[in-house]
């Protein structure tokens, strides 16, 4: 990058920040910068995976949308200097600015928006348009063909101020992510027994009981990264006992209960269990 390009990007970011629009640098490919060494492998807890919006505590531009800031000292800080040299664009956090972006990826999506949504400010993109509304909401991908919602806990590339007047977020946009209720999935999945029932062929009942108890304790002791801990623990249990027929519904119920006590939902538990089985080819 040239000094001119770096200055232009940083100047644009500072201008947006002065208007109370949280910004962050993007690298080539419209991707955010990866975690710094202190946050590698989500060692810091992975701020964007939290359920409530908020900035990242790391002084580097880590964690995508959670790095967005309006603080000029942060934007000009030594920790951000390297990122600005490597940046290819400026992004902003719409939800942090009290905005919602309806991202229209193609001509069909634009046609639908013109027929279904109230007029508002539009910004041309490389493939379609961003429609900006005043008001924040949960972000969601693929709410309909070619349409994403970018607002809370998301970022959008800054492509200029656009044209038209920003209007209030309408109910029709708020309703886009709402899906019909899915059938309730069981909280506990019975592990198939490849060779029939019976005792474990290679472990004693005492070994299995100790293993389940240790798995429960591993989940209970998780201070951060609960999602990852639950998945890793499920994977370990299934790796040791998933194919021998010794696991029962009572065992899986104990693991799920430990995970839910740490804040996991039944859906999270079910997905983690299914993903672990898929990883092991079960």
Question: What would you note in describing this structure?
Answer:
This protein has 282 residues and is of the alpha+beta class. 36% of the residues lie in helices and 14% in strands. It is built from nine helices and ten strands. Strands 4, 5, 6, 7, 8 and 10 form a six-stranded mixed beta sheet that branches. A hairpin with a 3-residue loop joins strand 1 (23-27) and strand 2 (31-32). Helix 6 packs antiparallel against helix 7 (226-241), helix 6 packs parallel to helix 8 and helix 7 (226-241) packs across helix 9. The radius of gyration is 24 Å and the shape is globular. Residues 48-52 and 182-199 have low confidence and may be disordered.
Summed up:
The chain has 282 residues and is of the alpha+beta class.
| Distance linking N and C termini | 49 Å
Q: Bin the strand percentage.
A: 5-15%
Average pLDDT across residues?
84
Backbone CA Rg: 24 Å
Helical fraction: 25-40%
Low-confidence stretches: 48-52, 182-199
Overall 3D geometry?
Answer: globular
**Number of DSSP helical runs:** 9
**What is the element string, with H for helices and E for strands?**
HEEHHEEHEEEEEEHHHHH
Structural class of the secondary elements? alpha+beta
The biggest beta sheet reads: 6 strands, mixed
Oligomerization state: single chain
């Amino acid at each position: 990058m040239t000094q001119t390009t770096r200055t232009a990007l940083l100047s644009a970011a500072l201008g947006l920040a002065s208007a109370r629009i949280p910004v962050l640098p993007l690298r080539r490919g419209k991707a955010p910068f990866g975690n710094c060494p202190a946050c590698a492998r989500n060692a810091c807890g992975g701020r964007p995976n939290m359920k409530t919006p908020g900035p990242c505590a790391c002084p580097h531009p880590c964690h995508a949308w959670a790095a967005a800031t309006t603080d000029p000292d942060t934007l000009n800080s030594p920790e951000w200097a390297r990122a600005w040299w490597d940046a290819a664009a400026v992004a902003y956090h719409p939800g942090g600015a009290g905005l919602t972006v309806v991202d229209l990826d193609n001509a069909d999506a634009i046609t639908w928006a013109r027929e279904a949504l109230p007029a508002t400010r539009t910004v041309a993109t490389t493939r379609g348009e961003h429609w900006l509304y005043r008001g924040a909401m949960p972000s969601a991908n693929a709410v309909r063909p070619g349409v994403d919602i970018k607002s809370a806990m998301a970022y959008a590339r800054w492509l200029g101020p656009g044209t038209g007047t920003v209007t209030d977020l309408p109910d029709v946009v708020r309703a886009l992510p709402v899906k019909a209720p899915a059938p309730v999935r069981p909280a506990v999945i019975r592990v198939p027994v490849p060779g029939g029932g019976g005792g474990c062929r290679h472990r004693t009942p005492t070994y299995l009981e100790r293993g389940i108890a240790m798995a429960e304790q591993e989940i209970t002791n998780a201070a951060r990264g609960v999602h990852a801990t639950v998945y890793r623990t499920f994977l370990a249990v299934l790796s040791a006992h998933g194919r021998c027929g010794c696991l029962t519904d009572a065992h899986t119920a104990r693991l799920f209960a430990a995970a839910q006590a740490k804040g996991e939902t039944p859906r999270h538990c079910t997905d983690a269990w299914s993903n672990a089985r898929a990883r092991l080819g079960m």
